């Protein structure tokens, strides 16, 4: 088998929903041994949530399947008297703990950073939250769309004559996951030099503010907010033609491109009267309407061919199902699949980061609740009789069948 860069890294993963699980899946794709700690029976809350009441294979959540491949599941009751003994024993040889419970919840149960570093000074403990671990928002729910609203992203998205628009994906959670990985890999590198672990704190609000750096800088230094355009201009700070335009059979995007080149393609020289940086911004909605009237007369394919021929920055607007058949997506191998014991063959997006010597791989499906409980406890050094005792007393649970 191809070696994996993180094959010697073991992660105790207490996380649920999106932020933490996406972080640990990214580590798992690079070979890390992820022990997903779940509640007996129900497991990760995402197992019970889906879109439009649609379930893969009739019973499996697409939300859960998307973020939990390449992991093993340990079902354990964190409130059981023997839970600490088991998890502390695993932590003796673990490298990383990841959790995104509300601040203080795991610490009250005896699974905080201070608890684990007493057992293993080399442990790296990464916590994800909505708003950090103190302050006036501490008791608020830290959900993705709420963070988009609080940090200015939703207010900067959409048309000016309509409501603020959240991004059509869990953007704050996924940025949070990336920041968790960033912190973990940085801490692993530091530990190689220092021999000690550390605590990492990542929150969604800080992450989304940091990823709006240029928009925040403009607002703070000029003392005014962007005004959303009423047209399909693609960013509240940009001038025409930057935006989304209709064609006779779809939509195209046009980015930062010389206005004269676009006018040349569309064939209406009267538009050149707008070719001034100030006018292109102040009249951007008006310009968009005039450009859109022309782009509507083209098919997407014909307009793309004409614009690309003169090096205009442009692209087709595709739906998720259309993206699957995109030739570049196919060329890059970005759609793959895994076989799940209940859901069957599940199509998924492949790892995005390519490493030449230690490539990422999808080698395990998302686990069933407690599917690997017995296996993980054996690896921790427990005998069959001890495992049987824990199972009998309900401290841990295992998935005995492929049918939940």
From TrEMBL:
Pfam families: CoA_transf_3
InterPro entries according to UniProt: CoA-transferase_III_domain (IPR050483), CoA-Trfase_fam_III (IPR003673), CoA-Trfase_III_dom3_sf (IPR044855), CoA-Trfase_III_dom_1_sf (IPR023606)
Keyword Transferase attached: yes
Cited SUPFAM superfamilies: CoA-transferase family III (CaiB/BaiF)
Highest taxon in the source lineage: Bacteria
Swiss-Prot/TrEMBL keywords: Transferase
Single GO term (MF): CoA-transferase activity
PANTHER family linked to this entry: BLL6097 PROTEIN, SUCCINATE--HYDROXYMETHYLGLUTARATE COA-TRANSFERASE
Name of the protein this chain belongs to: Carnitine dehydratase
């Amino acid at each position: 088998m191809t070696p994996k860069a993180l094959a010697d890294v073991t992660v105790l993963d207490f996380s649920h929903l999106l932020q933490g699980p996406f972080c640990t899946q990214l580590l798992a794709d690079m070979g890390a041994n992820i022990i997903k700690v779940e509640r007996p029976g129900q497991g990760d809350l995402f197992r019970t949530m889906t879109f439009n009441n649609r379930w893969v294979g009739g019973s499996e959540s697409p939300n859960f399947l998307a973020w939990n491949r390449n992991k093993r599941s340990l079902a354990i009751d964190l409130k059981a008297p023997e839970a600490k003994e088991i998890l502390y024993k695993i932590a003796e040889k673990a490298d990383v703990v990841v959790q995104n419970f509300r601040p203080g919840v795991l610490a009250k149960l005896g699974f905080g950073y201070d608890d684990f570093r007493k057992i293993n000074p080399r442990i790296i403990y990464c916590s994800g939250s909505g708003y950090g671990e103190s302050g006036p928002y501490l008791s608020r729910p830290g959900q993705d769309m709420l963070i988009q609203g609080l940090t200015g992203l939703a207010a900067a998205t959409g048309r000016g004559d309509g409501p603020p628009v959240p991004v059509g994906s869990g953007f704050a959670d996924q940025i949070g996951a990336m920041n968790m990985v960033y912190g973990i890999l940085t801490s692993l590198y530091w530990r190689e030099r220092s021999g000690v672990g550390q605590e990492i704190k990542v929150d969604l609000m800080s992450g989304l503010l940091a990823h709006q750096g240029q928009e925040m800088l403009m607002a703070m230094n000029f003392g005014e907010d962007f005004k959303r355009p009423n047209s399909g201009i693609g960013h509240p700070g940009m001038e025409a033609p930057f935006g989304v335009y209709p064609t006779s059979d779809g939509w195209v995007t046009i980015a930062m491109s010389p206005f004269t080149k676009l006018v040349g393609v569309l064939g209406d020289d009267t538009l050149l009267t707008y070719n001034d940086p100030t006018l292109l911004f102040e009249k951007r909605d008006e310009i968009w309407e005039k450009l859109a009237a022309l782009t509507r007369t083209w098919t997407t394919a014909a307009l793309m061919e004409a614009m690309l021929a003169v090096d205009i920055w442009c692209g087709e607007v595709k739906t998720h199902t259309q993206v699957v058949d995109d030739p570049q997506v196919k060329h890059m191998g970005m759609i793959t699949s895994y076989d799940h014991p209940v859901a069957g063959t599940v199509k998924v997006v492949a790892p995005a980061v390519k490493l030449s010597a230690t490539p990422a791989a999808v080698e395990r499906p998302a686990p069933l609740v407690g599917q690997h409980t017995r296996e993980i406890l054996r690896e921790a050094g427990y005998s069959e009789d001890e495992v049987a005792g824990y199972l009998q007393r309900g401290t841990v649970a295992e998935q005995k069948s492929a049918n939940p």
